[in-house]
Amino acid sequence: MKNTLFNIDGKVVLITGGYGILGSQMSEYLASEGAKVVILGRSQEKGEALANKIRAKGHEAMFLISDALNEENLEQNKADILKAYGKIDVLINAAGGNIPGATIPPDKTIFDVNTEALKNVIDLNLFGTITPTLVFAKAMVDGGKGNIINIASMSSFRPLTRVMGYGMAKAAVANFTEYMAGELSTKFGDNFRVNAIAPGFFITDQNRNLMLNPDGSYTERAKSVIAHTPFRRFGRSEELLGAIHYLVSDASSFTNGSILVVDGGFNSYSI
């Protein structure tokens, strides 16, 4: 008899920022495993391209224009998803990122930070997680079951140089994950769980300029990251898929309020 512990066939999985480098890998993989994937994002072109790619392989995917900070937009997304599928099983909050104004370059100090950019980065990463959670968790509660997966970071555990706003937001995302795990479960029962994955260092659109020189060679920051990672390399985006599959599946049914680290040993390594 086939083991169905990790079976996700038929689960309706929403992914905010679902066409980003990490989000697109999750979208394609989960759809290939039988999930009904709903890609949420602001770019019609990118979202439809990914959904079409998934459907061309015989899997199920839907794209909806969405803004993770716009509650009215998210409420409409929720109505459209419930009309199409009748339920929401899993929300993956993958929307996020950084902007240059919220970072502090080596030749600048804390007094040069752009506070408006700082607020924007905190809004995107923190409230871009909180707002979808509150909207879609209500549908989960109405349906009697729900599973939310947030994206934390190495900067959730300790401050990393330069990425001030991003680090503050991701530390708050980790705290929010743990808070919501208790809030949903104690108020609505053990069919609700909230967890997060904390990726180590992967090359993405958000950090490419920090990690790679124009010729593709590593920056000094990238060399520092590699030196502090026992695997001595950056992660490959597909290496997050096992952690995501575990958290999406019922194999993680007693996992709640956890931050699952996928980092090649970065967070545990000292000297």
Description:
By secondary structure, the chain is α/β, with parallel strands linked by helices. It has one domain: NAD(P)-binding Rossmann-like Domain (Rossmann fold, 3-Layer(aba) Sandwich), CATH 3.40.50.720. The chain has eight helices and seven strands; from the N terminus they run βαβαβαβαβαβαααβ. A seven-stranded parallel beta sheet has the order 3-2-1-4-5-6-7, with helices on both faces. Helix 2 links the parallel strand 2 and strand 3. Helix 3 (71-85) runs parallel beside helix 4. The longest helix has 29 residues, at 115-143. It is globular, with a radius of gyration of 18 Å. The relative contact order is 0.14. The model has no long low-confidence stretch (mean pLDDT 95).
Given as residue ranges, the uncertain stretches (5+ residues, pLDDT < 50) are: none
Number of strands: 7
Morphology call: globular
Determine the N-to-C terminus distance: 47 Å
Keywords:
271 residues; alpha/beta; Rossmann fold; 42% helix; globular
Furnish the topology, listing elements before pairings.
Elements (H helix, E strand, L loop, with lengths): L11 E5 L4 H12 L3 E6 L2 H13 L4 E5 L5 H15 L4 E4 L21 H29 L2 E6 L12 H25 L3 E8 L8 H4 L8 H8 L13 H8 L10 E4 L9
Parallel strand pairs: 1-2, 1-4, 2-3, 4-5, 5-6, 6-7
Helix pairs in contact: 3-4, 4-5
Short description:
The protein is α/β, with parallel strands linked by helices. It has helices at 21-32, 44-56, 71-85, 115-143, 164-188, 208-211, 220-227, 241-248; strands at 12-16, 36-41, 61-65, 90-93, 146-151, 192-199, 259-262.
